[in-house]
Amino acid sequence: MAKRGKKKKVEKKMDEQEVQYWLLKTEPGEWSWEDQEANGNISQWDGVKNKQAQKYMKSMKLGDLCFFYHTGSKSRRVVGVVVVTKEWYLHKEEGAVDVKAVGEMRRPVDLKEMKGDIELNGFTLFKQPRLSVVPVSKKIWDRICDIGGGYGIEDDLKEED
Q: Which of 49, 80, 127, 143 has the maximum number of C-beta atoms within 10 A of its C-beta?
């Protein structure tokens, strides 16, 4: 029952405010999309040490959507979408937010592909590539979703129409 109440709370919060968009980077060897799904889709996003990235995390609100981005030498791409289910809180010495998997990208969107797309010029990911948390404008969010063919929840919503 607690899970249902939390879902309604997230949905209500999303209705009350404009959703913000983010990109969260993770090394797949440390925490992958598969780990996220295997963990009941909910996880604590922590371990962010950079002050600017922490500032961005503190700006996250309940219901904000985040790209789940695999980084590292083998894989640099958006693989899924998560939603913020608990706003920033102090955890150990850094802080954390809780996120829940919303859906996997129908097709992962590679960094090289994003850099080659003129509509993504100015994306913070390109300007500050070392940050593990970056804001994403609505325009860029929509374009990346288009390139990737959408993600899980969008497919469910289309089937209901």
A: 80
